[in-house]
Design a protein that fits this description.
signal; Gamma Fibrinogen, Chain A, domain 1; alpha+beta; coiled coil
């Protein structure tokens, strides 16, 4: 009888601690979302101010810095939300509190105290997003280390292990690829369908280190082939 009562008291205490830790996660996510809203507001103000010629150079630099910080806060908020969701997938019983502790440590590791540390946590390509635990293909914001400017890219997290930054996709002919050199320099199309990422963007990504180029092709007879080249 006493043993049963003690066990019930123990689990009530454990559940209460878990509620408190969930509250900490909610508060942290709320703070990150507020910071994200503030950065968006600052970027909007800079976009309005940059229309005037006076101080154009200084405002453009500020706009770049705010865009960079917005990317970092967005990625950190996304990671915090994933951590919160993972909390509910923790095993029950005796292992639930260590699991919560581990997730809290993970959350602390992705919410460093300074803006410089925020910048270091920003992904430089789709491979870094993949290695941070993201496994869903889609659009993500990356900040190439040499460029310092954020860009939106499509990440393929399914093909051959995942982590591929897609630089071109042609599927149904919905986008005209007969373009000027300026279009190929800056990029064109729709990242959701057909597009060319842009020579400048590809250069910023590929000069960060050694990369592999993978080409997947399919003919009108649904015959597929692929080739891969490593730098």
């Amino acid at each position: 009888m006493f043993r049963c009562t003690d066990e019930v008291s123990y689990w009530l205490h454990e559940n209460e601690e878990r509620k408190q830790q969930i509250a900490v996660l909610k508060e942290t996510i709320s703070e990150l979302q507020e910071e994200l809203r503030n950065h968006r507001h600052r970027i909007k103000v800079l976009e309005l101010q940059v229309r005037f010629p006076h101080g154009l150079s200084r405002l453009w630099v500020n706009h770049q810095q705010q865009s960079f910080q917005l990317c970092c806060v967005s990625q950190t908020t996304h990671a915090a939300q994933l951590t919160f969701l993972d909390l509910w997938r923790c095993p029950t019983r005796g292992s639930q509190i260590p699991c919560v502790d581990f997730l809290l440590l993970s959350l602390l590791s992705i919410t460093p105290p300074s803006e410089i540390q925020h910048a270091r946590s920003c992904p430089i390509d789709c491979a870094s997003i993949y290695y941070n635990g993201v496994r869903r293909s889609g659009l993500y914001t990356v900040v190439p280390s040499m460029a310092g400017m954020s860009m939106e890219v499509y990440c393929d997290m399914d093909t051959d292990g995942g982590g591929w930054t897609v630089i071109q996709r042609r599927v149904d002919g919905s986008v005209n690829f007969d373009r000027s050199w300026r279009d190929y320099r800056d990029g064109f199309g729709d990242l959701h369908s057909e597009f060319w990422l842009g020579n400048d963007h590809i250069h910023d990504l590929s000069t960060q280190g050694d990369y592999s180029l993978r080409i997947d092709m399919e003919d009108w007879g649904n015959r597929r082939n692929s080739t891969q080249h490593t730098s």
